[in-house]
Each structure stands twice: as structure tokens, then as C-alpha cells.
Amino acid sequence: MPESTRYPRKIRYLTFFRIAIFGLVLLAGGGVFLGVWYVKYLEGVVTAKFDGRKWNFPAKIFSDSYLIYPGMSLSMEGLEGKLKRLGYRTTVGRPRSAGEYRIQKKDGVAEIYLHNFLYPLTQFKGYPVRLTIVSNTATKIHNMDNGQEVFSLELEPELVTGFYDRVWEERRLVTLAEVPPLLVRAILAIEDERFYHHMGIDPIAVLRASIVNFSKGGIVQGGSTLTQQLMKNFFLGSERTIKRKAKEAMMALVAEWKYSKDEILENYLNEIYLGQKGTQGIFGVWEAAQFYFAKEPSQLDVGEMALLAGLIKAPNRYSPYLSVEVATRRRNLVLAKMFEEGFITRSQYERAHRKVILPREQVRLANDAPFYVDFLRKELAENYSSEVLTVEGLRIFTSLDLHLQRIAESSLREGLKRLEKKYKHLRKTAENDRLEGAIIVIKPQTGEIKAMVGGRDYQKSQFNRVVQAKRQPGSIFKPFVYLAAMIYGPEDKEETFTPLTFVEDSPFTWSYEGKEWKPENYQETYYGIVTFRQALEKSLNTATARIAKRVGIKKIRDLAYRLGIKSPLALLPSLALGAVEVTPLEIARAFSTLANNGVRTNLLAVKQIIDQQGRVLEKRDVRVKKVITPRVAFTINHMLKGVLDRGTGRGTRWRGFRRPAAGKTGTTNDTRDAWFGGYTPDLLAVVWVGFDQESELGLSGAAAALPIWTEFMIRATEGTPVTDFIPPRGIEMVEVDPLSGYRATPNCPQVIEEAFFKGSSPEDFCPLHPAPMVFEEAAPLRRSGWPVISTGR
Amino acid sequence: MLVAVILLFMSSACTPLFRDSISLSRGTLTQPGEAPLDEAGTPEGKAQASLPAEASLIAKIDSRTPPQQAVSLRLTEDGRKLIDSGHNTKALTHLEKTLAIDSNNPYVYFYLAKAHFNLAHYRQSVDFLDVAEARLDSQSYWMAEVLSLKGENFQAMGLLKEANHSYAEALRFNPKNQKAVVGLNRVQRAMEIPSIR
Fold first, then answer.
1. A399-470+593-665+673-728: in CATH 3.40.50.150
2. Which of the residues A156, A191, A256, A586 is marked catalytic?
3. Are A399-470+593-665+673-728 and A472-582 in the same CATH fold?
4. Which of the residues in chain B have pLDDT under 70?
5. What is the tens place of the pLDDT at every residue in A403-457?
6. Could you tell me the CA-to-CA distances from B59 to A148, A171, B55, B63, B116 in Å, in that order?
7. Smallest Cα distance from B178 to chain A, Å
8. How far apart are CA A75 and CA A717, in angstroms?
9. What number does CATH give the domain A472-582?
10. Which chain B positions have a beta carbon within 8 Å of A682's beta carbon?
């Protein structure tokens, strides 16, 4: 072959070779460049997490606390139920650490080691108490440490719910120094025994796991280090793919390069998932120590540490709440490892091994009161963004009473069902037109909202009728007319109206601004001349309208505002009969002023807000304002007691509610709204029933709302002290004949005790039923009510 | 000398949170194991003795006192101790809880007013005193206390005429009420001084 053809082939090989080398170098260089870039990217991700906000801490909503004192009504069952809801655990022997209790039913004794609790301004340290209960009454409370008598005992508030983004991670941060070294060693021993020797990934562990998995034909053992687990929890999902594992490994290497072993370990101890409590996930060793043992990590014993360490692999499988046997086996495995590694002595091992894990009940988070929580959320939104509420770990203390809330919810739910069963026309099939209702419960002295139910089923409709539904109050507005009458008297002359002032109950025309209004009574029944009391007790429209005309609509309206109504009220005659639109909340606030002896309070749901460190961010004070005098308030309350005893509200009595209480039914002219508002001196509740689409209910307040109110109040006041409205100074109680309006004689068939401002009570005795007269000399023999004839001797 | 000063400073600066803990479950201001103390550190009996008889709420408790009323009075007394020891904000929280227990306890309104006054919430203090006044009107000692505190509030708000009236009324109920005597003198002197322009 000629030389000229062989030379070009050689050159072609050389050129190809050079190009290939160049290509390889380029590829390698590109790879290195990409690799470096990717590592840098991962470094940025890891440092952003480590140095920035790692976790979100949802705000927690707490109910009101619960006070126990000697002499109060309390059943052992009720107490135990409360303790369980608060996460207390029963113990066989005397309670020795916070969160334990023992009940000795035979002796009527409950021993409770109180939880530590972070109240606003106070870090309460728990101590053991002995509570004696005899015949469902708490009789004595003693401090078990020193035997001293305790005059009152406050059980901490219940956790109602939290404001969280998507997942509720319950966690409290600890430093590595706050975690007992033995717990750390136990965790390392079982999860990553070579933690301090590897660089983030452990090839030996990977190799071992691979051999085991290969021999078992599946993935039964992991070779991940603590660092890898942390990276997975921080950044990655749980899918078992090579890509994810590779990324996890690289991030672990980056983390180990950037941060110390202790920093990584500390983050791990705060990050790990260790169980579930309803919607709450339990994360971190501090929270887990509280959840499983009601202790801080530093208080855990050897066995408890072993149990916690063992949970990490599968918290829900090894949880003592699920299976004591499985939890015990896992704990013992960890104990064996701890002993094998020389962390614990033989005697420690044997003692911990012998300790029996008691079965325990998973306490469901209250998670009740969805309408109340929604109301809170809206209130808080004024000052706190959604982000702050879901990440800053605020603790929000409210006035919610979960016991009353549960009663309110069930009373409304069952009450509406009973109405639908009894009255067929109330059964609607359309989802958005079912019979609905609302209840609000208030403590009059403080304005605290103790319970709120905005509808029969929150899942179906979140519309909160307590605060959002503007409905006509109808005759539940009438007390404000009578109240204005007592305060101002008539516009046209100087006169004091009393409950026994007479008024005509008959049709009439009220002319105003060129128009006419003709009020009518229910079923067009008229009673002629009646007293103010009778008109209010029977809820007579025309009598009330006549009174309103004499007093003046403006005064009535302004008084309603002073009592707590905020919706605009038109200055029309029909205002007297409640032809305006207000919410149940407003009616409750106004009635609460009456219940509180004429003192208006600001309604309170949020009481205090503190941050994670216990610093008070906000305190909402109880605010009071005297708006009417106590004697006027007492007079109207006394009249409204008559509504329950003799009037349209008497259904409360034959349904079994016997306590002294005042109240008023409310029915609108078109029977689209049914109301009942009533109160004792200590508790007020307002109930509304109707349709959202304003279909006709066809029922009065007495038929529709009163039964629900009665059931609620009977259950809510059970076991509480009976209280009554006390006549203040300036009030005179006089026995009178309600028919004549005069002082009663022994011959009067009906006698009631009436309240009068001092100096305005009738002086004369009843002329309709005169009593025998006696001469003055025989006066000592006469009975009360017998007139005396003076002989002038 | 320097060491002594530092030690003195440290001992007065150290106020452990638990020692100030006054949650209702205690009933008193003390740690478990200690006798009930007042703010001066003397046993409860002695502290009660230093108050006039009418002022003692514990003295109003006997075997016939309904349990709800008894616990309300005790807790109000705890609130008084908190105020006297300068813990006005804690006192407010404590007394607001106490208010819910017995609707007929008028004293808690007075002490709420006092705590608010100490925190310079004068308007709120007067509101509570209005309520207290209506409920205590049959007790001369307490009416004098209520009205003299009202006078202090009005004076703090610069309402000298109202303060003058309140102090005078207080002395009508109890001529020996020192706060009213001093307050009235002060207000009357202030009212005589012409304003400086």
C-alpha cells in the first residue's frame, strides 16, 4: 500500500482519540461543575433550615380553668372524667409524680398530683392533694406534702384545639443540655450507635442493612444515620427511592460538614415524631415525655427513657396507648441494648425491666366548640395575622366552659330533632333549609361567654347564627319597654310607673309622621284593663304598645343601646314589639345587664394571650359599667320572674326547672323566629330557633325555644348553689293582690310579692277582698291585712 | 464593701417565680409546707388583726356561711394581699376569676377598683367603684373606702370638684378615714391655687 494512504488513517485515529479525551475531560469538568453547584445548592437549603425557623408552633386554645372548693357539689365520676380529659393517669399506689391520681371510691378520697402549668404571670408547680368527697359534695382538701388544709383548688384549663396550618405538630424545644445523657445514649444506641464516628452516612450500617435486607428478600432494616433521618424529616418525603436516598445522603454530608454533632443531635431530639394524640402529632423528646409520662425529660427514669427511645422506629406501633405488651417488649429490647453497652448497671436494668407499664386510655383532644373557636379566630384576626397564630406558639386562654358547651350543643341538637319529630311541617329536605337554632351562654357578672353554638351541625354549615344572623327579636324586646317605663315614667306628666300600674289591653291606632300603626294581640285576644306585670307576663302586644307610646320610642331605643344592643334601631312604633333586626349575641348582652343588677359588661371570649415563654402579650380585662340603678334592675327582674312562674314562660316550670330565674319568650308576628332568653343571677342563656331562609316556623318562643333553654339550664345548673336576686336598698317588697293592685288582705285569693321603689307602694288594702275590720283596742289580735278602726280613746 | 453591696443587690433582685406563684389552687401566697403568710411575712392571724374588724373578709366567714360565699371571700382576701404586695396585674387576673364565683360578693369590686387604680386605669377603677358603691351602701366603713378611692381616682384624672365631693362623702360615712382626710385637704388646697398661664 502506498505510504500516502496509511498516514491519513493514523491521523484520523489520533484525532479521534484527542477528541474523545477532550470530550471526556469536558464531561468530567461539567460533572464536577454541576456537582459543586448542586452541593452548594444543598448547602444553602440546609443552612437556611438550620439557621432559620425550623418549626411552626401552633397557637393553643385553652378553656377556662375549673375551681374546686369545700362544700361544692362534685361527684367522683365527674372528677375522674375531668382528670382524664386533662391527661392525668391513674396509679395503683399513692401518686408520686405530677399527672398521677388515685381514687378510693370506698373512702370517698381522690389523691391527685397536680400538673405543672404555665398560667399567665404564674408558673404553677404541681403538688399532691387529697380531696374528700362525701355524698357528692367536696368536703375537704389537703396538701399531701404538709397536711395543710387547702381552701380552693384550681384544675388547669383543658386544651381545646390549636390554630395550625396543615398539620398540628406539638413540640416544645429543648437544648441538648436539658436532655438527660442516658436518654441520649439510649436513643443513639438503638438508632445510630456510631453517630459520633461517621460523617453523616455510615457505610458499615448500610452494608449490614443491605446484607440483612438481601437475605430477607425485602427492606426490613435501615442503615440511615440520625443525620440522614433528620434530613429526611426536614426536607424530604418518606418514599423509598434511590433518588431520595441519594439526596438524603448528600444533605447529611453537607450538614455534618457545616454543623457540629451536638447541633445535629439537638435538632434531631426536637424534630423526631413520637406519637399521635388525635389531631396532634407529638414531636420532640420534651413533648413525648409530657405525653407519655407527664414529666420533663430530666424527670424520666431508666425504663421511661428506654420506652421513649424505642418509640422512634414506629411510634404508633410501639405506643403504650395501643398495646402495653408490644410497648413492653420494645422497651425491654432497648434496655437490653443499654445494658449491653454498659450505660446502665445490672440492678438498674433489672429494676426497669420489672416495672410494669400500666394500660392507659388515649384521651381525645376536646376539639369541641367549633363555632366558639371560629368566633375566637375572627376576634384574634384583628390583632394577629394567620401566620402568627400558626407559628408563634401562642397560648390563648378563653372563658369557654367545655362542660356547658357540651350541654348546649346536645340540648340544641336534640331539641331541634324533637321539634321536627313533633311538628311534621318543620321537617325540610333541602340541605340549606333545615330547622336551625343557636344558643349563647354568658356569665352575667363578668361578661364571659361560657358557651356558643351557632347552628345544629357545624360540619354542614359554619354560619354562626349567634353573631351573624340578624333576626327580628319580636316580643323578647318587650322588657326594654317596661324597663324604660320604670325609669322614665310617661312623657306627658310626672308619674311613677310600677309593676301594678294599670294599662288598657285593646286595639288602638298609633299615628306617627302621617302614618298609622295598629298593633294586634296574638290570636286577637284582648284582656281589657291589666297591670304592667300582667301585660309583660302574658306578652300582650297592644298593652305594651300603649306603654311605649306614653314613654316615648326614643327613650326605649336609647335604653336598648345602653343595655348592649348595637344594631341600628329604627325610631318606629313597631320597635316596641321588636320589629327590628338584631343578633342573639346582642339580646344576650342586653339581658346580661339586667341579670347583673343593671351593670353592663363587655363580652369576653379571649381572656389572656401569652407567648411560649409565658410573657403576657394581651390581657382583656373584665369591664363593667353601671347603666341602670340596682333597684330598677331588680324590679324588672322581679317582673320577668313572673313570666316563668305565671306567664308565657311557665313551661320552664312544668318541664322541671325550679330555680329562681327571670326570662322572656320571643315570637315574631309572622312566627318566623322563636326566642327564649332567661337567667339566674349566675348564668344566662339565649336560644333562637328558626329557618335561615325565613320560612314560617308556625311556633311561638314558648313552644320552640323554651324547651331547649329549659333542658340546657336544668343540666347546666345541676349541683350548683341556688341563688336568687336580692332586693337592693330602695326596694320594698309588699304582698299585693295582682287583680286589684292593692295590698293583699287574707281574703285575697291570689297574692304575690311585688317590688316597689320605697315610697311608691300602695298604701291601701285590696277593696275587692276586704278583710274584717277590728277596733283599735283589739289591734294586737288582728292579723296582717286587717284594717284598724280608731276609736279615738 | 463592694462584695456586700453586690450580695445585697442579688438577694433583693432574686424573686423566684414559684415563690410569687398565687394560682388559686394554693389558696394562699405560700409554698407548700409553709404557714399562710401575708405580704409582711407574718402569719395570717396577725395580718388580719392589723386590719380594722370591718375590713377583714375572713372574719365574715363562719360555720353558717355558704361554701360558695366562703371561698369567694377567701379568694378576695388573697387578691387584697396581692395588691398590698404590689402584684396588681396578678391581682386583676385573680380577682376577675373570683368575681365569677359569687354574684353577691361586693368586696371583689372594690379590690378590682383598687388594682386598676394602682395600674393607673382610673376610668375602669371608677366603674368598678360605682358598682361597689351600689352594693356596699349599708356598710359605713366600706362606703368610706369606696368613696375615698373614688376621690383618689378623680384627683388623678384632674377632676378636682368630683374628688372633693367624693372625699367629703367618704368622711360622712367614716370621719376617721385617713385617706379621705388627707385627700380632701390636698384637693381643697389645689382648688385654691390659681392656675399658672
1. no
2. A191
3. yes
4. 1-51, 193-197
5. 999 999 999 999 999 999 999 989 876 767 899 999 999 999 999 999 999 999 9
6. 20, 48, 9, 11, 25
7. 27
8. 14
9. 3.40.710.10
10. 103
Coil, strand or helix: which one is A383?
A: coil
Q: List the one residue out of A430, A428, A436 whose CA is nearest residue A455.
A: A436
Q: What is the model's pLDDT at position B51? A: 65
A-chain residues near B70 (CB < 8 A):
69, 71, 151
Collect all residues of chain A within an 8 Å Cβ-Cβ radius of residue B86: none
Least confidently predicted of A282-286, A464-468, B126-130: A282-286
| DSSP reduced 3-state for A752 | strand
Q: Helix, strand, or coil here: A735?
A: strand
Backbone φ and ψ for A51, nearest 5 degrees, come out as: -90, -15
CA-to-CA distance for A671 and A366, rounded, in angstroms?
37
Q: pLDDT tens digits for A330-349?
A: 999 999 999 998 989 999 99
- CATH architecture of the domain formed by B41-192: Alpha Horseshoe (1.25)
Q: Which residues are paired to A453 by β-bridges? A: A439
Inter-chain residue contact A67 with B71, CB threshold 8 Å: yes
Distance CA A89, CA A94 (A): 12
**Residue owning grid cell 425485602:** A218
From A475, A592, A700, A761, active-site residue: A475
Give the three cell numbers for residue B28.
394562699
Calpha distance A248→B2 (Å, rounded) = 58
Nearest CA in chain B to A69: B71
B124/A99 Cα distance (integer angstroms): 39
Q: How far is CA A781 from CA A772, A776, A786, A787, in A?
A: 12, 10, 10, 12
Contact in structure between A609 and A394 (CB atoms under 8 Å): yes
Contact A726 B104 (CB under 8 A): yes
A624-626 and A599-601 strand pairing: antiparallel
- Give one DSSP letter per residue of A470-497, joined into a string: -B--GGGGHHHHHHHHHHH--SSS----
Interface of A with B in 49-88 (CB under 8 A): 65, 67, 69-72
Residue A505: pLDDT over 80: yes
Cβ contact A575:A556 at 8 Å? yes
pLDDT of residue A126: 93
Closest residue in chain A to residue B128, using alpha carbons only: A624
Task: Report the predicted TM-score, pTM, of the whole model to 2 decimal places.
Answer: 0.83
